[in-house]
Amino acid sequence: MSDIVQNAPVDLSAAPPTVPGAKGWGGGQRLVSLARMRYLSVLSVIAALIIWHLVAALVVRDPVFLPTPWATVQALVEYWNKPYPSQGKSLSYDIFISLRRILIGFGIGTTIGVLLGGLMAALRPIRSIVDPFIELTRPLPPLAFIPLLLVWFGLDETPKIVLITIGVIPIITVSTAAAILDVREELLNAARCLGASEFQTVLYVQVRAALPQIITGMRLAMGVSWTSIVAAEYVAATSGLGFLIIQAGQFLRTDLIFAGVLIIAVLGISLDALLRLLKSRIDPAARPAQ
User: Fold this and answer.
1) Distance between CA atoms of 216 and 42, rounded to whole angstroms?
2) How many whole angstroms separate alpha carbon 45 and alpha carbon 131?
3) In terms of Cα–Cα distance, which of 165, 172, 115 is closest to 142?
4) What's the pLDDT at 284?
């Protein structure tokens, strides 16, 4: 009997059994999981606001020490189009100024970093020349350059933009070089076998495969950009969110301090979300399964 079973012919053309409703099951499960995670994120933010309000209203009971969320929102609305301090700018203008500095410095630093990283990955002599300077500046906090930049460029917009650029370049350079060098040789050989030229192989395969990791480096650099600009506005500025926060602290307006901090957090999260969206459009592996 066992010999008969073992030697029984197998119909290889027969289709494997299917389970009704199994098509797209994995993708549906992933979408449900993502929805649950976002739901938990929203709940955690709501819970944090409730705890903040309870601690401020029932435990601390001192609006100077810890304002309630509602007082923070009231301060934000009050000074949205009203100068603070009286010789300063409105909150909306400070947001615009800080965001403009961030985007300009981040854009310049990203462009230089991508070019340097690409050259380091393509040409070993360039890598040997540039790498010591990148490794030297990468551990240094950008804030250490503030006094020097003030001496060189004065108090206008230039030192703030240069400070952001200095913080962005090493991160983007390292991430770009690593991303390009990490592209598998099999992908490049496959493109060449299909008739792609060396330029097409680099542009459509190597650079394309490296983009997700480069965007991850951009996300890290964006956080450094916000740290740098707020610190620079603390020291040498007459506008911007950092200037607003330091002025509010001198007059014990903690509600306005919290408003400025929350605005920075919202802007940072929004810019990071745009970069994540860009990565999901570029990297098919980051898209939810259909």
Assistant:
1) 24
2) 42
3) 165
4) 61
Alpha helices in 138-253 (DSSP H): 146-153, 158-181, 185-193, 198-201, 207-235, 241-250
Non-local CB neighbours of 85 within 8 Å, separated by 6+ positions:
247, 251
Range in 38-42, 93-97, 115-119 with the lowest mean pLDDT: 38-42
Query: Token pair 């890290």 is at which residue?
Result: 220
Query: How many Å apart are CA 126 and CA 67, to the nearest integer?
Result: 54
Q: Is the dihedral of CA 281, 282, 283, 289 positive or negative?
A: positive
Whole-prediction pTM value? Answer: 0.79
Span 220-258, pLDDT tens digits: 999 999 988 888 888 778 888 989 999 998 888 999 999
225 near 278, Cβ under 8 Å?
A: no
In angstroms, the CA 45 to CA 257 distance is 19
- CB 275 within 8 Å of CB 218: yes
Residue 63, Cβ density class (10 Å: 0-12 exposed, 13-18 middle, ≥19 buried)? middle
What does the pLDDT read at residue 206? 82
The three-class DSSP label of residue 248 is helix
- Phi, psi (rounded to 5 degrees) for 84: -145, 125
Residue pLDDT, tens place only, 132-154: 888 888 888 878 888 888 888 88
